[in-house]
Design brief:
The structure holds 2 protein chains of 2 kinds. By secondary structure, chain A is mostly helical. Chain A is about 75% helix and about 0% strand. In chain A, about 35% of the residues are buried. Chain B is an alpha/beta fold. In chain B, the strands form 2 sheets. Chain B has a 6-stranded mixed sheet. In chain B, strands 2-1-4-5 form a 4-stranded antiparallel sheet. In chain B, strand 4 and strand 5 form a beta hairpin. The radius of gyration of chain B is 18 Å and the shape is globular. Chain B starts with a helix and ends in a 5-residue tail after the last helix. Classes of the chains: A mainly alpha, B alpha/beta. At the A-B interface, helix 8 and helix 9 of A face helix 3, strand 6, helix 4 and helix 7 of B.
């Protein structure tokens, strides 16, 4: 004990020059990081503001009753967005109807039922890879399987929806598995402990608690599908369609493809219409995200 | 005190009453590791049976054998015979769902469903179709909460979330939830280890009150608790059952030196 006392160093001098230098360096690093972060934020936000401002100034004059209710036309003055909007709505409906139940069931099966072995490992890896496959590949798959092999109607929201569902499903599976995994095991024990069967545990307890997470993942996937252009070009949804689709098997186009088509037009009048279509697409996306946030808050429960 | 005198009166050890549950030569493996080795125990309906022992001695694992909760762990394997009223609960014709309704469980950490207090208690009766109607279900919920000593504290806020209650109240809610399906046996896995002394006292009082109506098995690492609430005590060490007998005997006159060392605080 006395040894320690004798060899103890003198008390720290916080005012010594090296110490002060160290403190100054720390503050400088702090300031540098704040500036860097702010710059990064301004850069990304700046591009968004620039996009919105350009689109708004170019496109707002393009809105009219005719634009909101009409379909594609050869004259820029007579074109409308309703046909593409309805096409997008129908396509999204098909995508959701297929990808959501299949994705959620897959996620639940993999998390709650499937044994851990080589096969499920392989399935897991495949699903993770599927989520990263470029969308054009899915378009080619849709063309080969749904059109050429199954002879489903060309250019239809049905085929577009199925193709996009293939793309969206892995995203939902991954989000769903994480959400299911995040449900505390104690809740499962509690339900099993009063004699709930496995399916009751899943549908009475696990699924309701995982739903906010599943919905968030679903909306992310759906938003990506909504903005997807390339796979739909492959299955013929780029055709010129002058009347809104009546159902999911009618020829149709979707918002991003419509934007792509109009932006390719030589006539000056289409610049305005392209911007207006972008505004419609952005509003659609915002509405979807809004619904997602609303649903998530509604279902979110704390434990 | 009263309850103690009342149920201690009948000669519970009379061989005429067969044990509620019986374990014979039970071993539990996690993969290759033997967590419980060759344990034989009788659980009587009249008594509270305590499993004591140091951490990792296999007492909780052994408890979970009685309602087959180990089934949910894929690496777990159970050998030996476990009977409920003379029926092998690991037999293929035994319905696990029904077994868990007959052998209820209360867990270490209070785990109410993130639903209303009412729904927490009503869930079990509802999935088993035990209530004839809304009025009947209300009655079951009230009776269960009363038995769990929680009714007076929550009767005006049954629609509030069960997770908003305090820890001790949550645990009593979990006991009410277990009682609601009218089990024959209640397994309690360190039910008070996450609670403060006052909440613990309430749980122990509750166990006193429930004795006789249900066969109760409680796992605890708190020896005073075992001494206070139980009439039978089983001492586990390193996966083995070291000694099993009357609680008063185990605590005052243990036959095995290892038990004595543990109880007197030599290790644990």
């Amino acid at each position: 004990m006395s040894d320690v006392a004798r060899t103890a160093r003198p008390p720290t001098d916080w005012n010594a020059a090296p110490m002060q230098r160290r403190i100054r360096r720390r503050y400088a690093a702090e300031r540098r990081f704040r500036l860097l972060g702010l710059a990064a934020l301004l850069l990304s936000a700046g591009f968004l503001v620039f996009l919105l401002a350009t689109v708004a100034t170019n496109g707002l004059s393009g809105f009219s009753w005719m634009f909101l209710t009409g379909s594609d036309a050869t004259e820029p003055a007579r074109v409308g967005i309703w046909g593409a909007l309805k096409g997008s709505l129908l396509t999204m409906a098909v995508t959701f109807a297929l990808a959501f139940p299949i994705g959620v069931l897959t996620a639940i099966y993999l998390e709650e039922y499937a044994p851990r072995n080589r096969w499920t490992d392989m399935i897991e890896v495949s699903i993770n890879n599927l989520a990263a496959v470029p969308s054009i590949i899915f378009g080619l798959l849709g063309l080969a399987v749904f059109l050429n092999f199954m002879h489903l109607p060309r250019s239809a929201p049905l085929v577009g929806g199925i193709t996009l569902a293939l793309m969206t499903m892995p995203v939902i599976v991954i989000a769903g598995r994480n959400a299911v995994k995040a449900v505390p095991p104690s809740i499962r024990d509690a339900a099993l402990g009063v004699g709930a069967s496995r399916i009751q545990v899943v549908f009475h307890h696990v699924l309701p608690l995982a739903l906010p997470g599943i919905l968030t993942g679903t909306i992310v996937g759906m938003a990506r599908a909504l903005g997807e252009t390339a796979p739909l070009l492959m299955i013929g949804m780029r055709a010129f369609i002058a009347s809104p689709p009546g159902g999911i098997s009618d020829p149709a186009t979707v918002l991003p493809v419509q934007i792509f088509l109009w932006s390719d037009e030589a006539s000056r009048g289409f610049v305005e219409k392209t911007s207006a279509a972008i505004v419609v697409l952005l509003v659609f996306l915002l509405a979807m995200n809004g619904i997602a946030i609303y649903l998530r808050n509604k279902f979110e429960r704390r434990w | 005190m009263n309850a103690l005198a009342k149920t201690a009166a009948p000669a519970a050890d009379a061989p005429a009453t067969p044990p509620k549950m019986r374990a014979r030569g039970v071993s539990v493996f996690y993969g290759d590791k033997k967590a419980v080795a060759d344990v034989s125990v009788d659980i009587s309906k009249e008594h509270v049976t305590a499993f004591i022992g140091p951490s990792g001695c296999g007492k909780s694992t052994f408890l979970r054998v009685f309602n087959r909760m180990n089934d949910t762990i894929t690496s777990a394997r159970v050998e030996g015979l476990i009977e409920l009223d003379g029926e092998d609960i690991y037999a293929s014709r035994m319905d696990v769902v029904q077994l868990r309704a007959r052998v209820g469980m209360v867990f270490q950490k209070p785990n109410p469903f993130p639903k209303s207090i009412y729904e927490n208690v009503a869930y079990g009766p509802r999935i088993h179709g035990l209530a004839a109607g809304k009025g009947d279900l209300d009655a079951i919920v009230e009776r269960s909460l009363k038995r769990a000593g929680l009714w007076d504290e929550v009767k005006d806020r049954l629609s509030e979330s069960g997770t908003a209650l305090s820890g001790g109240q949550q645990q009593r809610l979990c006991i009410a939830r277990a009682i609601a399906v009218d089990p024959e046996v209640i397994l309690m896995d360190e039910p008070a280890s996450a609670l403060d002394p006052i909440a613990t006292a309430k749980i122990e009082e509750l166990i006193h009150g429930l004795r006789g109506r249900y066969a109760i098995v409680i796992v605890t690492h708190n020896m005073q608790q075992a001494a206070r609430v139980s009439q039978r005590t089983a001492f586990f060490h390193l996966g083995e059952l070291v000694e099993y007998g009357e609680t008063s005997e185990i605590f005052t006159n243990p036959k095995v030196p290892r038990t004595k060392d543990y109880i007197t605080g030599r290790y644990g």
